[in-house]
Amino acid sequence: MVGMPEPLQKVLADPRLTALQRDGGAILMRLRSTHSSKLEGSGPATLYQEVDEAIHQLVRLSNLHVQQQEQRQRLQQLQQVLQWLSGPGEEQLASFTVPGDSLSTLQEIELRFRAFNTEVQERLSQAREAVTLEEDMASQKVLDIFEQRLEQVESNLHRALRLQRFFQQAHEWVDEGSTRLAGAGPGREALLAALALRRAPEPSAGTFQEMRALALDLGSPAALREWGRCRARCQELERRIQQQLGEEASPRGQRRRRADSASSAGAQRGSHSPSPSLSSLLLPSSPGPRAAPSHCSLAPCGEDYEEEGPELAPEADGRPPRAVLIRGLEVTSTEVVDRTCSPREHVLLGRAGGPDGPWGVGTPRMERKRSISAQQRLVSELIACEQEYVTTLSEPVPSPGPELTPELRGTWAATLSARERLRSFHRTHFLRELQGCAAHPLRIGACFLRHVSDPLKRLLGSFPFP
User: E strands, 217-339, where?
Assistant: First the structure.
C-alpha cells in the first residue's frame, strides 16, 4: 500500500475486509463441503466474487488517480522550470555575458558561474524528464536553446580567462626583465641578464596574433586596448635587450669586459704570492719588455686574439716579436705553446692555484668557459620547462558534467583547489627562484633542495654518495 492515497489505505486496512481477503476462500470451501445439501444456489460464492472484484476495481481507480496526479506534478514542475529560465535564469545568464577587465574579477565571475551552471543543470534535468514523458517538443526546444546559450557563455568566459592570464604573464615577464636589466649594471652582469632574458620563452609574435584574434572574437574594446599596451611593453623590453647585446658586442663593450677580467685577475694575484719555480719564469733573459701585455695574459686560443686584432696591430709594426724564456725554450707570442696559446698564461694561472695545467698548475680558461656555458644552458632549459609547466597549469579546466555525484563534485572541487595552489607556488616562488639562478648556475641545486620534502631528504641522505 506504499504510494496509495490515504483514503484508499484506510479502506484496505479495515479489519473486516482484511479478514475476508485472508480467510474468505477457506470459509467458502468449508461451507461447500459441510453444507452442500443445505446451500441453495451460488449465493455465498457470488457475494464473495463481487466483493473481491470491487476491491480490485477500487485499486485500479486509485492507481489511475495516482498516475494523473504525478502527471500534473510533472507538468507543474516543467512550468516552474520554464518560468525560472525565462525570469531569474535569464537575468543571471545575461550578467555573465559582460566579462570583467581583470584576472581577479574574471576568477570571481567564474566561481559564480560554476554555481549557476550547477543549478541550471539540475533544473534542466528535471524538466527533460517531464518533457520526455509528455513528449512536449515546444518545451524541449526552449530547453535546448537555453542550454546552447549557457555553453556559449561558458566558452566566452574561458577564453576571456585565457586572454587575461596571457596579459598577466606578459606583464610579469616585462616587469621581471626590466628589474633584472636595471639592477644588473654595466659589464658582464648586464650581458648575462640580457642573455638569460633572451633565452626565456617570451611571448612570440604568433601568440600575440592569436590573442588579438581572441580579443576580436570576444568583441571587447578593453581587451584590445590591453593587448596593445602589453604588446608595446614587450617590444620595448625586446628593444632594450637588443640594445644591451649590441653594446656588449661593440669594441667599447669588449674593452670593458677585458678591464673587468684584468681587475679580477689582479685581485687574485694580490692574494697569492708566486712560488720560486714560477718566479724564475718572470726573469728576463734578453733585453726588451719583461712581460707580455695584460690583454694577452688570460686569452684562450681563437677567442680574444681574433677580437683584439686591431689593438695589437700598432705594436706589431716595426717591432720584433716579444719572447719569453721558459727553462731554456724561447717562445714568441705568435707561436702556439699549448692549448692556452700564451707562455705567460701558465704564470698567471699558476698564481691562481688551478689544478690541471700542462706543468701541473693552472686551469685553462677555455675549459672554465665551456663548463659555465653548459651550466647556463641547463639552467635556461630548466627555466623554459618550468614556464611551460606553469602555462599548462594556467589553462582553463572544463566544468564537470551533471552526471557527477555530490561526493565526486566535492573531490573535483578539492582537486581544483590543489591545482590552483600548485600553480601559485610554481608561478610565484619556484619559477622566480629558477630565473634568479640564470646568472649563478651553481645555485640551482640549492633552489631544488629548498623545496624537497623531509621524507625525500631522508631518502637522499641514505645513499652512499662519494
Answer: 323-326, 329-332
DSSP code of residue 429: I
CA atoms within 13 A on the CB side of 243: 8
Q: Are 412 and 433 in contact (CB under 8 A)?
A: no
Residue 35 has pLDDT above 70, yes or no: no
Decide: 125 and 402 in contact? Cβ < 8 Å.
yes
DSSP string, 15-76: HHHHHHHHHHHHHHHHHHHHSTTT--TTHHHHHHHHHHHHHHHHHHHHHHHHHHHHHHHHHH
- Rg, the chain, Cα only: 44
Q: How far apart are CA 38 and CA 11, in angstroms?
A: 34
Long-range contacts of 302-308 (CB under 8 A, 24+ apart): 302/341, 303/366, 304/258, 305/341, 307/254, 308/254, 308/258
Given a cut of 70, whether residue 188 has pLDDT beyond it is no
Residue 250 exposure: Cα atoms within 13 Å on the Cβ side: 9
Instruction: Copy the grid coordinates of residue 34.
Output: 459441510
Q: Compute the distance between CA of residue 379 and CA of residue 377 in angstroms, rounded to an integer.
A: 5
Could you give the maximum distance between any two Cα atoms of the chain, in Å? Answer: 163
Q: Letter for the amino acid at 58?
A: L
Cβ atoms within 10 Å of 196's Cβ, excluding its own: 22
Beta bridge partners of 323: 332
Residues contacting 65, CB < 8 A, separation 6+: 5
Cα–Cα distance measured from residue 351 to residue 268, given in angstroms and rounded to the nearest whole number = 8
pLDDT at 192: 64
Per residue in 115-172, pLDDT (tens digit) is 999 999 888 888 888 887 777 788 888 888 998 899 888 888 888 899 989 988 888 8
Instruction: Specify which residues 326 forms β-bridges with.
Output: 329
